[in-house]
Amino acid sequence: MNKFFKTVLLTGLFVGTTDLVCAYLTQFINSGKFPDKMLNAIAGYAIGFKMAFPANNWIALLGLFFHYFIAFSFTLFFFLMFPKVKFLRYDKYLIGMLYGVFVNLVFNQVILPFFPPPRWSFSIARSYIDWVVLGVIFGIPIAYNAYRYYLKPPSNSAQG
To answer: Alpha helices of the chain — where are they, by DSSP H?
Structure first.
């Protein structure tokens, strides 16, 4: 497998999984019960909420596909932009945090408006929390792996 594709795939899988686990934990903490229909709600944005509920396993799998598709898309975008935009090499942790904010803003302000409600209400305090969480669980791992992929010093295996 191509090293670039493998790195993007594994990074996207990692950030998609951490994002999903974080979403489940947040919903559980807020509601006190396991959010068993979360993946159906994700699918509902694409296929309509009337079709996504009542829930079934196929709809949940479709929601899981959409979730990971979005995670892989944002991961691939960063990896493709990294060699072209010199600013991204500034500091992997700061850039990762800023990328988390970017992902949150693009997703909430550009992608979700194309889909029908329900919408969650906007709260600046909630946005700050989302930005920090996405920066830590999404942006920093992507930036860190891009740094490792692009800026890793060459190995001296020719020495003998």
So the answer is: 3-31, 38-47, 49-52, 57-81, 92-106, 124-134, 140-151
Tokens, residue 23: 């979403």
Distance separating alpha carbons of residues 150 and 147, to the nearest angstrom: 5
- For the segment 90-99, what is each residue's pLDDT rounded down to a tens digit? 899 999 999 9
The torsion of the CA quartet 8, 10, 15, 20, rounded to 10 degrees, works out to: 130
Structure tokens at 136: 């830590």
pTM, entire model? 0.84
| 150: its two tokens | 């692009």
What integer pLDDT is reported at residue 118 of this predicted model?
56
Cα separation, 48 vs 33, whole angstroms? 24
Q: How far apart are CA 131 and CA 128, in angstroms?
A: 5
Q: How far apart are CA 153 and CA 49, in angstroms?
A: 49
